[in-house]
Structures
1.
Amino acid sequence: MHRALPGFREFYPADCALRNHIFATFRRVVRRFGFEEFDGPTLEPLELFTEKSGQEIASQLFHFEDRGGRAVALRPEMTPTLARMVGARAAGLKRPMRWSNVGEAFRYERPQKGRLRSFYQMNADLLGVEGAAADGELLLLLLSVLSEFGLTAEDFHVRIGDRCLWNLFLSQFSLDGVEPVLAAIDRMEREEGTRERLLALAPADGAAIWDGISVLRTCHGLDGLRQFFGQFAPLRERAEQRLADWEGLLECVAGAGFSPNVSVDLTVVRGLAYYTGFVFEAFERGGEGRALAGGGRYDDLVSKLAGTPLPAVGFAIGDVTLANLLVEKQLVPVYHPRPAVFVLWEGDRHREGLALVTELRRHGLAVLWDLSPVSRSLSKQMQRADRSGAIFSLFAAADGNGPVTLRHMESGEEEKMDRAAAISRLVECHRRPGFTGPDLRQDP
Amino acid sequence: MHRALPGFREFYPADCALRNHIFATFRRVVRRFGFEEFDGPTLEPLELFTEKSGQEIASQLFHFEDRGGRAVALRPEMTPTLARMVGARAAGLKRPMRWSNVGEAFRYERPQKGRLRSFYQMNADLLGVEGAAADGELLLLLLSVLSEFGLTAEDFHVRIGDRCLWNLFLSQFSLDGVEPVLAAIDRMEREEGTRERLLALAPADGAAIWDGISVLRTCHGLDGLRQFFGQFAPLRERAEQRLADWEGLLECVAGAGFSPNVSVDLTVVRGLAYYTGFVFEAFERGGEGRALAGGGRYDDLVSKLAGTPLPAVGFAIGDVTLANLLVEKQLVPVYHPRPAVFVLWEGDRHREGLALVTELRRHGLAVLWDLSPVSRSLSKQMQRADRSGAIFSLFAAADGNGPVTLRHMESGEEEKMDRAAAISRLVECHRRPGFTGPDLRQDP
């Protein structure tokens, strides 16, 4: 007896409908923000991911050598592929580029609730423009997508951090690069021992860095940040400039009515090494507080991967935690697909019957007929029509052009009528909203 | 400089729009046939594919050992996953099951025109019902999907073969299984040496088999088949039964008006070992005559993979050849996405401006605004509005609640009006069909 691999999902129709509802909702919202969809290979050269994304991802790759001896990996994220693609055609693309993607990604991790080895990511990236307005626009997109599912500020919040402010603070100390310190801050909410880690990284300054972190992680507003950086005269001016960016960002959020959904939170630094500015993560509120989405500005990645400098900001929403949350909050549309019509005919007059079936389908209706190889008596066909859940049945009598009988299955009401009239009636019903009841398959 | 792997595609927005148009068209048509979408893992245990699909596929797999020591493979096709899933829940699923899928598949082959290492397959399978009516229904679905793209009988045809008739013919000879003979027939259109291959397989009967094949491959109608099998008295009765199935199948096709699109052609046997009855392939007409789709009945696979007997018939359409044909025939919708409105405001009044942007987006319109960090003068904003391709611009003067100026970009006509009136006007325009011109992104 075969089984799926651990951490991989089988999507039975109701599961697939939920997945497709998530995809469709994302696509509907990104269109309103002027985004265009792109996609890239699921399998990529290994070095595309090991080179710039940092160790966190490299250790979790599904990678192998293909038959041609190439080191290849299933993509763990979309951003390096995006950076390569945009970089390769940067000169010919209209800026800013607003690109979105819905695609599968793979990480070899221990499967657990909300974390699988295969998952879908919905990515949105805004490239070719610097500054807080672009960061704000992207943040609004994330907030709008989550809201479109029916989630409110009581269900989720977005925490915004800032690598620029960390870099500014850390510029006072002599360090072998800030990356290991940022990695330590990233881990501090999940693991003990940050202070010891910092002392190991910077024996002379570790204690001062720890003290600064301890204050900064509790600053949940711009006033607190202003006060903190005010202590350090050499940093004051650059801090003020950056806080003006923060004001611009938060004004975007306020203008769109999303202030209750966001908070300033410098403990958010994001694990991927390529981020350079604002970073943000969306979390469930209450309960397990799982991460729903994350992103930020990465102004150097395109340059590093494709040789073309191109500022960029982007985010990814995962489908696993989001789907769990939608189920918990009862925000999943009912899945109850029903055919519109079941067509019946006497004897083996497939030709006439199928002409009718085909005409109705050409009008967009979901139409079934009895496929049984045996016992196609009218009563048997009617039983099957009943079991199919069809809203109407349509009985075509023996004469191909004669009248037909249209029956509303639930009420049992039926009417003998002209074939063309029956088709018109059904097509007209079909155009009415809610014709088949709440049905994901009717959702565009 | 990084590149994608050979045989893998990058989908820039216009390419992705064509891909999504293909997916959307398929999904639209399968819904009319009452199909439900499912999906399964992209990565599967290797043995799922090596066990039952035959050597043709097994030699073309991307397979490797994962970090847990499991032999795994990227799926080369969807059918084994489907068989496992349906088999595992067969008792609880309403029959017949009509299941469709749109998914990526992978084969390590030499990349060439129409053949890549990664491609998309659109699958449709009808399970739980035997007989020619189900085969006919599925064939109609394939014909309807291809027609929905605008392709006609001049562009493609479907050739229908029959493993039952081959099995019947070969039952006269003493053979070590019919599979190697069917494989030889499958290869005969692409390769020389079939007669020699048959003589090697069956030294005593090879010549007689070759003679039979030579006649059967030229039978393009039921009369010819009836005449051929009439020669062999012991086969006559079973041949007549099978030809009655053929009549049922062709009557379905005729009823739906697709007779010009199909032909009887026993040279079609399909490479996969699991087929058991009718098999069919859709080809381009003329030109290179590449295969667009293929499928058939596979009544034993679910039983073999999941232990539950379940008759089934299905097909897969590949996206690569289909996309090439649509381009050749100029059946690709124009991709020219345009935002509906570009919103401008004076100074740094982001809060008021973004409230307007957000409201318009909530009504479903694609709305842009100027993200530039510098030089947000009105004239600069207007330039950017112009370059964006937006249909309208909307200028919100300094006072957040004051009148706004709505401008139709192409004609230059503009009108100062109440904010609420401008929003209503835009929403109303947006609801009109063709508001943004031919735009794939508006296609449901």
Note: The domain at 341-431 of chain A is CATH 3.40.50.800 (Rossmann fold).
2.
Amino acid sequence: MERGSPGASRPVEPGPCLSSLRGAEPAASASTLSAARAQPGSRVIAVAAVLPAGGCGERMGVPTPKQFCPILERPLISYTLQALERVYWIKDIVVAVTRENMGAMRNIIQKYQHTRISLVEAGETRHRSIFNGLKALAKDQPDTQLSKPEVVIIHDAVRPFVEEDVLLKVVAAAKEHGAAGAIRPLVSTVISPSADGCLEISLERARHRASEMPQAFLFDVIYEAYRQCSDYDLEFGTECLHLALKYSHTKAKLVEGPPDLWKVTYKRDLYAAESIIKERISHAVCVVMDPKQDKEPVDHFLEALKNELNDVKIESREPGQAGRDIQQSNLEQCYNFVSMNIMMSDFQETRKLLHMLEESNLSILYPVVVVSGEQKLQESLRQGAIIIASLIKERSSALVGQLLVA
Amino acid sequence: MERGSPGASRPVEPGPCLSSLRGAEPAASASTLSAARAQPGSRVIAVAAVLPAGGCGERMGVPTPKQFCPILERPLISYTLQALERVYWIKDIVVAVTRENMGAMRNIIQKYQHTRISLVEAGETRHRSIFNGLKALAKDQPDTQLSKPEVVIIHDAVRPFVEEDVLLKVVAAAKEHGAAGAIRPLVSTVISPSADGCLEISLERARHRASEMPQAFLFDVIYEAYRQCSDYDLEFGTECLHLALKYSHTKAKLVEGPPDLWKVTYKRDLYAAESIIKERISHAVCVVMDPKQDKEPVDHFLEALKNELNDVKIESREPGQAGRDIQQSNLEQCYNFVSMNIMMSDFQETRKLLHMLEESNLSILYPVVVVSGEQKLQESLRQGAIIIASLIKERSSALVGQLLVA
């Protein structure tokens, strides 16, 4: 069992960052948390998370295990870790990976500056991997930096879009009921086939739910369940809530979760995840421009850009200020920079900005210079906004350095 | 009940077309079909399809019902209809749409030149819509062009990626067993909650399956089931196989289906569908070039393009010939045209080709001219291939008419 670099509690993300980018205001989550704290008899809870990541992703039809598949050049699991890291009250995150992927995982932790991560070796099956993670948390000894939590969250490496809100709900429910898990309505009817492959029973869809992640447990409840459960359970079981019920006699509280909790399973899910990430990192644009420029065309351009990008947050900076902010990564939440240069026909400022962005370790940026034509300025500005919006939304690396005419 | 224009048996598609574009060779399917015909005692079967399309798509979180959501500017349902139309042995396709969407549906049929389609009014629920479709097929009268089929396929408007292969399997199984349906392994464990929202039972995932579409039935089996079933079934039921079992005592044969059968339900599914369609229409490229050009750079370019686009089929045409083929839409399966113009520095040929493509009613095309730089030709060709591949894969309309430098 090894420990990742502790580092700062909130890293500078080299890759696109999700949670902070889709209106999950820190304020909101903080208040929800204090609400949870304010529950009768509740106090600050020691919470850790276990993330089984030993799967081989055979259903994906790609050689790479799905949790390591790149999305915008960043491995899927890194988005999931980031989502958990942003929840400051999760003290430790224990990730179970196979021996052959241990090195790759260490590199991911280093490259994306993940913190609070401990690695354990994955088992043959999902349940065995989770059990290994729990064991690491259980031994409350000086030789490890881990200490036994009161509540443990179990999540999947391939569910990158988990939000603080649902984590908070399952943790609070676990504290009260001993176990809790997120559920979703069924999309298809579930049936049970007979031995000869014919329909035996079809279940009433409305009476059943899909059991999703995250789940949370009082540590002793789930750890005891794993200690007592049979080899058959460890080999063929898929459901932690079931183990808690069967071996710790704990009926899990079921919490309705959002659709984005779905599990990245097939190639199409990678496509969907990439589109969701692209959409989420398109919500903030930093427009860098000389304040001495005419206000009118600038406003016209920003208006057009807003029309092209739905609910986009546009902040503008002066060139020098933008540089400082980028270096101090005060613009952590922004992955889109537009340099507006209406009057001057040289690109000095733009070049400076590009250089600074390339130096910085912000998200993968695909800088493209857009030149407005002189005549019909208004029309060019609208066209420019359309082009910029599509560059932001599609992030095609093949266009790096192209000159596009608006 | 109204009938769409019969038209040609195989329309010129104005929109991207799927089945023909992902290696489902007519030859292959024909042989499979004759294999089915060759079954002991079997003959050509009269087959029709019913497509309930009355849903309002509340889960999608968008105002438009999901079956009408555009993908590359073409409504989702049109892809599904196209997939069914390509199976020549499906005689009639009955679509159930709500009264308010009847007009929109008629426009889709006309715009995308769908054939063999009949429209009926959708009911309040999925089962009622299907029942309406079956009634339309049941009345074997002179005043309708529909005649009662031996086997009826029931499919969803929001499962656009259905292939002839699985349709053939369910139809053959239905003929033998009376009913058949496609199934998939469960992705999540299914649980049944108690009244107080706690875990009651969790089902063993390996013993259950998700019931998907398409399904097929001997017409009399499913029609009788619908005639006899209760109002409760029609209101709250979700599973046709269940009705066949309960009211016609017919145990459906379950057929393992491919993952692409999944049902477009959430916004992320639209993202996934769009990516799949983009990928599928990127598999064929028609390179138009003057045969008098140097062979070597051309070959180098085509090689580079092949490296960028996985398993792409590249056919080359001379300018004049390409023009004729486009006009006669002999290139129906191709949505990607690259005009190579290495030596000449004017764009006359390219302009001609563009004009012809714009005139033709082929798929939405986003023509972009790529100019290779003079020096380091080899490198430019590689760069050009990278740019062209990304244009083909991403199809960004915002880049129309741009000049990109390789």
Note: Residues 369-406 of chain A form one domain.
3.
Amino acid sequence: MKNVKITYIGGGSQQWALRLMADLALSEKLSGRLVLYDIDHAAALKNKEISAQIFGKPGAVGKFAVDVEETLEAALKDADFVVISIEPGPTEKRFIDLKIPEKYGICQTVGDTTGPGGIARAIRSIPTMADFAHAIMAVCPDAWVINYTNPMAWCTGALYAAEPGIKALGCCHEVFHTQEMLAKWIAETYKVDMPTRHDIKLDISGVNHFTFATDAVWKGKSVLQDFADSMKAGEPEVLSKNALDREANEDWFTSEFKVAEDFLARFGVLGAAGDRHLAEFVPWYLSSKQEINSWGVCVTPYEWRVKRSQNPDEARQKYLEEDLSPSGEEGVVLLEALAGATDELVRTNFNMPNMGQNPDAPVGAIVESYGLISENKVEPITCGILPSAVQALEDRNLEIQQLVLDGVMNKDKDMIFAGFAIDPLNAISPRASRALFEEIWQALEMDY
Amino acid sequence: MKNVKITYIGGGSQQWALRLMADLALSEKLSGRLVLYDIDHAAALKNKEISAQIFGKPGAVGKFAVDVEETLEAALKDADFVVISIEPGPTEKRFIDLKIPEKYGICQTVGDTTGPGGIARAIRSIPTMADFAHAIMAVCPDAWVINYTNPMAWCTGALYAAEPGIKALGCCHEVFHTQEMLAKWIAETYKVDMPTRHDIKLDISGVNHFTFATDAVWKGKSVLQDFADSMKAGEPEVLSKNALDREANEDWFTSEFKVAEDFLARFGVLGAAGDRHLAEFVPWYLSSKQEINSWGVCVTPYEWRVKRSQNPDEARQKYLEEDLSPSGEEGVVLLEALAGATDELVRTNFNMPNMGQNPDAPVGAIVESYGLISENKVEPITCGILPSAVQALEDRNLEIQQLVLDGVMNKDKDMIFAGFAIDPLNAISPRASRALFEEIWQALEMDY
Amino acid sequence: MKNVKITYIGGGSQQWALRLMADLALSEKLSGRLVLYDIDHAAALKNKEISAQIFGKPGAVGKFAVDVEETLEAALKDADFVVISIEPGPTEKRFIDLKIPEKYGICQTVGDTTGPGGIARAIRSIPTMADFAHAIMAVCPDAWVINYTNPMAWCTGALYAAEPGIKALGCCHEVFHTQEMLAKWIAETYKVDMPTRHDIKLDISGVNHFTFATDAVWKGKSVLQDFADSMKAGEPEVLSKNALDREANEDWFTSEFKVAEDFLARFGVLGAAGDRHLAEFVPWYLSSKQEINSWGVCVTPYEWRVKRSQNPDEARQKYLEEDLSPSGEEGVVLLEALAGATDELVRTNFNMPNMGQNPDAPVGAIVESYGLISENKVEPITCGILPSAVQALEDRNLEIQQLVLDGVMNKDKDMIFAGFAIDPLNAISPRASRALFEEIWQALEMDY
Amino acid sequence: MKNVKITYIGGGSQQWALRLMADLALSEKLSGRLVLYDIDHAAALKNKEISAQIFGKPGAVGKFAVDVEETLEAALKDADFVVISIEPGPTEKRFIDLKIPEKYGICQTVGDTTGPGGIARAIRSIPTMADFAHAIMAVCPDAWVINYTNPMAWCTGALYAAEPGIKALGCCHEVFHTQEMLAKWIAETYKVDMPTRHDIKLDISGVNHFTFATDAVWKGKSVLQDFADSMKAGEPEVLSKNALDREANEDWFTSEFKVAEDFLARFGVLGAAGDRHLAEFVPWYLSSKQEINSWGVCVTPYEWRVKRSQNPDEARQKYLEEDLSPSGEEGVVLLEALAGATDELVRTNFNMPNMGQNPDAPVGAIVESYGLISENKVEPITCGILPSAVQALEDRNLEIQQLVLDGVMNKDKDMIFAGFAIDPLNAISPRASRALFEEIWQALEMDY
């Protein structure tokens, strides 16, 4: 067992911190210290309080001392790993991301990644992430940083923009769901036992939440064409009903992959993220609530998000009652590999500055790709080539990524606006687009 | 006087052929033979008939024998120059470009350059232009070809795709109007005599009809910032009224440059084409008739186009009654320079395959830039750099240009569809987008 | 155990075929059929004859039936894997590569990769490799091809130039030796047990035989700077004596890594190939026999090569007398991974067309990089960035690679000559350079 | 007549300052003030003294008041134009450039542009040029700067590296001589009156002194192929004798264009600079004095340079005795065009940071190309494409340019050495190369 110190920024979270503790409790390869840090210090203390319960559950093997620190610097001291998973501002700030654009006719399913909502969230997240980066490089420059915070590309980008020497990865589980969907389809189609998601080897390319699988290999055989041939478009009426049923059940996150499949049908590559994310990168699926529902997708409401955030203890309690089980996230697997606690190479997807893994994206842009993780070493794998029409859609997003990141880092409002103005969801009158931007700017209390 | 043979493909045109004859009649540097060729042979004959009247008008100095040939090959024989200015198909074919998309909620001001209408027109023009290219290279491979036909980028691109060794330029007067507008503004602002448009030296970059001026120099002084400072946004109500008044007067082509100026206000570069063209490249101005009118721009109706095409003799007669005057086009100036009939270097804008003049566009893409014309020599001048947000808009169009051109040249329907699907005006439901494409495809009687 | 059919082109070889059989005999994961094919049919038969002895040695676990076929097509039938390891022409052809350039003052240590000798060898190898590629794609298009033949970049490039859809890897052990040298240094420097070469994780970039390590990681720690700090330049006199001693012992292949280290001292990256290979890519070490000896390197003489080739049975006999031991090559490890006979990911170096793994090389050029091998899947890993001075040296070689490959594939003598003329070893008078080229051309009996 | 103020840095020069005065005296379009500045103040005063004689010669029409200033800042005040033509250090410093490399077996024909000599000269020129740039931007930021100083690429590059907003052009007459040579050949070949050099329109690409003509057009007709067909290689013996005869006559600068033609014969493009310059960029022509003489080229000796520099008054006196005649330089033509004193567009060659005019060179590198000059406006023309073998030679030089410029600007000795080490003329032992570098470094009294 390797002994490590892990610092968790956002350690007061009602969900992610508990899940990480569960995964650590299940790890046979790591032990040591976990330090929770959160601007909501009380929440971090609560998580520390219940940590013993998690590490004491039946099946727990990992041994971790859990502490809380009041300052970021104290929390980072001697850290081997830093996990960042925060919400930028209280949940009520999401009003800016979601409700203000709605007034101008722009509806977003998630609003945390791209579009006017994602950009608003980026404007307030980037400086925070830049501060984290400076603190990390001052206190524990050799630590590996795993970021889970959205908007993924902007948050990871801010870490590198502030401190180019930082060793940071952005991790996201969306691609896992695509593997799971394909695993299920394989079991049904080829009449075999359900493969695990790891048995499906994808080639992906793109930016986080707008990734595409250019190939899917199972047992050495490419199955993407078979999958494409077997797809059924789905009746808009049926899909709409499914969406409305889910809305009634507050089941916001289920995806029928009809948007992902629509990309495959029209352009030849399978969307490799949930439909609610994919839909936000193009002006096609979100023109109206009816349209997005007709793909089986619901809009996660602002009101539900606020409601949930107001009952953190309830979520914690519910989690404690469950049996110890793996979260499905790969964070601890990465920590094991980076710590040299395993000899196995880990091949997984992550977000990092492009150093060539995506030959069609600018060097330095934050892209998602597969890569290889081993002791203190991360090596991106060369991406497959996207069809040029899909790459053109990616290019737009990459350009917006750059403009908003540079704009916020340099306090250049015109540059941020330029990125905002060319966002595909922003297909409204230029006059309205300017008014929306100014309303967001004011709500964010920006002073430049 | 240099003796040259000029072949005019589309020589039955009721307007452009007469204007070229007028410019030739006014040229002190060229004489020779002009051969008209048109699939509407009768129309060409009519133009020949009235040619003597044009060359006989007071003020005419050029001496040209005007002939008509029945076959393209005969017309091209011994040509030094080939001018191409055709309408692809009878005007009624524009129903496909304009009225079918309208059914799906897509309204285009012109519909001959980009968007679903421009793509429909490209699909039927590209094979024709490719045929012209083959005939030219077979019969008169050393001739310079001046193309005036829209969609400019696709038609010029088809010439080069079919025959990479062809010597062709695509010429367009839109940039001239921007110079004229600035000349007027200079006279008013600096209280000087009105400069000629040639006194305003622009730097431009982009694709035809979506070009931008990155600088405007008058008497060695950059005036773009002064112009930007003096712009007034204009009241939407007033602009809408102007547009409706013009509609009532069938005055479709006047531009108040409010779209051009909106780009300058928001992104820092001045649109250098008429507003009715600029508006078609982005999803912002054409969301409704009200929106486009609020920028002072009218939609040229299909019905008016058909009506005009049905009275060609009327147009000819009207033209004959006018005094001989320069058309404002630069075709004959280019012919003089290319023929070596003048020692002066000519600096003008044209469309050619990118060989580096636009460092931000792919090599081989048809881009518009300034260049230098001299005897048998055309040299593009390096373009200014567009702001990256505007370049991102150009990039989308360049990608569509490539997909549709390659798709038509290789009879690859999926590739054409991919270009169609990512067109910014095509911001409709993917299901509707597919249906629209299929309806256009059927109306065009495509068989692949 | 996975059942596979392996076809060995060049199966009459006195060394490589035997080594592959030994590795197969030691494999616990593969069994099946090995088919030997060679234009020297008798040699292949001899190897078949002794195969039973190899598979019967103590310690052998793999079960392979060994056959010989008289035609390439018969040999390739149903192949899952094709191994190519040939000598292009009888060894006497090496006179052209080695002795003709010597007359013009150009001395090469190996002469099989680059320089006039490597180019001569490329001119005669490329058409042969292209023929292999066509046969493979006609008979067993799904087979993976492992090429061991030099010149590596040109031979692998010819396979892809002839058949872009081929699935081929070029494999070379030079990088292994760099790992072994570092392992030894680590044991000495850090006073630890000798690591295996697999414990040293290199980052490499470049072309085969001119690769450089931009980093070397052992137990998660970068050791390259320590290594650089500990290097001693070495006295030219001592190194010369070493070289001459080795010449006397016909020990041609030993490398003291002084050239490799010289690159590290001067440019910051460690040469990751034997010195006798590295020296041939620049005009610095081979100006005279004295110069190259002063780096501890000998020139492998043509005469010795011929002598060895004339006693194949002796080599075979010697091999049979040895105990069964792994060859040190990775071919069988790759076959196991590609066959899906193991669950472990294999990370190794190989040569493939650049698809982005080397962001500084042209797409399609044959570059060496690390990559990941799994069932029917090969994924290149993004290379480290070379210092720009070293990349400039690589660029020259990449340009020559392209000119000679394209030139031979298209029978364009001028293009081949252009590549030859700019080779760094060809720093002789242009008049002599032309004469040398023509003498080689004639000796190769080229007819275009 | 336009009234301008011209500042001449290096105004004490015994040749260039007088020639500029002569050209100004002959200009019908400019008048005003010429201010001479030189660190050798006495020399500048001498030139002022004789200025009246030049402006008073028969045929003089331009009216210029000539002044001398003691400080650079005073000289630059109100300047519209700045001409820079200096020798970096006393001529004796050329010992470092020429005689030290000779000790290591490296012989250079000129040694002011590239190779060890050019790099030594760059190391001492770049800081001086950077100082000029800072002074210009502080005092007269709108002035156009014409640099004549060698090494051209490094000196012009230093101006832009120090002050990216500077408006500077590097001008060189080498290409003019290629035009003149072709003019003479045209007269002889086509039996016509001798054209002027302006009648020969070249397409060029490359870096200064290593430019190549990809085409040569006369009267609208490409003549390069005819020229290539008519070339005769020349007997080495005869050429050697010519070279030795010229040495005896101290006629160092005459070129027979045999190196220029050798490039055309071998690679398809004509060297467009004097042979003594072209030869220094490749390792082929300067391997020995015999070799370079065999191309009809002499080595300009250090001793002659020193001798000449010691008799400046003699040179001045000789110049004063001559009739007033144009210098053949284009400086004043550029000043007229930039000042708006003429309506004609000027097409000429110059050196500027690449902004796309050379699609094969990095953006920002100093490249030579044609361009268009008009009032306060300079527009590069897109270069022709060099054959890839020649581009590979250019690439090496461009890489060295970058390493040495960045190295000197950032006082990074290792970076400068990296550029030095990969220079093609530096094809000596790495040990000798390091020793040579250190000897130069010490002689230059560098302190980092």
Note: The longest helix of chain D spans residues 115-139.
